[in-house]
Amino acid sequence: LHLKNQLSHAIENRQLNVVYQPIISIKDKRVNKFEALVRWNNQGEWVSPEEFIQIAEEFSLIKELGQLVLSQACLVLKQLKQQGFNDVVFNINRSVFEIPLNQSENKQWLNTIEHFGLQPSDICFELTESALAPDKRNNEILFNLLRESGCTIALDDFGTGYSSLAYVRRIPIDYIKIDRSFITDMSTNEDDNILVSTIIAMSKALGKKVVAEGVETKEQLDLLSALSCDYIQGYLFSKPLPAEQLANYLSQFN
Ligand code: G
Ligand code: G
Ligand code: MN
Ligand code: NA
């Protein structure tokens, strides 16, 4: 409860911070996408996002947290575009509790994006499939709301939840992000290798782009490249970067 009060205070005072991890296109070795990842330093101590996101969900702080992350990210993205990095897209993680329940909640997100002079297509929402477990909400209606908004959608942590394939079939997603746990052992574990290649083949056959998460070694990169994976993300290329370093980082590709 103590932590919840501190989190509530931190959100109110905009004390959360956002870092941005590059997503690399394997084919042309360029970067124009970053995943926004929230960070919280609570009086000198880093609290893991897994811990405080869960608290935020439990105590109904998640929508405010999400708005804070979205507005911080939109400000940074607007500044990058003003510096000439026009085609940059930010991926924003969305808990299922943040999915708009109706047109007016959806408008709130769109208004934030518009407020910073950005287009919906400048933002991709990453949704975690495990968070999409069937509940009272009709996920298809919600996803269609998101789709109508013009933002792209990525299915995050693919392979770890359940009903993954049902979601792929029924929901209009643009990107599939293969969970890090499959990538980690793909160079040593034949089964993981088969699973990764099958996910990539399936995604491509369905017309979706594939991102491999948690790529840490050259060996993994080479395997993914041979499998025609579209994008990779991971410490091999870069850890998440503070906003101030993005322009400099992007300069190397121009
Ligand atoms: O950055 P890190 O690996 O520690 O992130 C841990 C988890 O927290 C990831 O699953 C990520 O999706 C989630 N996460 C990070 N930032 C946000 C955010 O702004 N909103 C939500 N809902 N989840 C986030
Ligand atoms: O669940 P989600 O995919 O949103 O989580 C992303 C998390 O993975 C972030 O917290 C990020 O810091 C972490 N991450 C990104 N790249 C790597 C990597 O190469 N190795 C490991 N172990 N974690 C990574
Ligand atoms: Mn993510
Ligand atoms: Na993920």
Write up this protein:
- It is built from 10 helices and 10 strands.
- With 254 residues, it is of the alpha/beta class.
- The radius of gyration is 18 Å and the shape is globular.
- The structure holds guanosine-5'-monophosphate (2 copies), manganese (II) ion and sodium ion (NA).
CATH architectural category: Alpha-Beta Barrel
Sheet with the most strands: spatial strand order:
1-2-4-5-6-7-8-9
How far apart, in Å, are the first and last alpha carbons? 48 Å
Name the ligand types: guanosine-5'-monophosphate, manganese (II) ion, sodium ion
The sequence of SSEs as H and E is HEEEHHEHEHEHEHHEHEEH
What helical percentage do the residues reach?
40-55%
Q: Structural class, from helix and strand content?
A: alpha/beta
Q: Might you state the CATH topology name?
A: TIM Barrel
Radius of gyration: 18 Å
Total of DSSP H or I helical runs spanning 4+ residues:
10
Mean pLDDT: 91
Strand content: 15-25%
Taking the sheet with the most strands, its summary is: 8 strands, mixed, barrel
- Under CATH, the homologous superfamily reads EAL domain
Number of domains: 1
> What is the molecular shape?
globular
Strand count: 10
Domain EAL: 1-254
Organism: Litorilituus sediminis
Protein name: EAL domain-containing protein
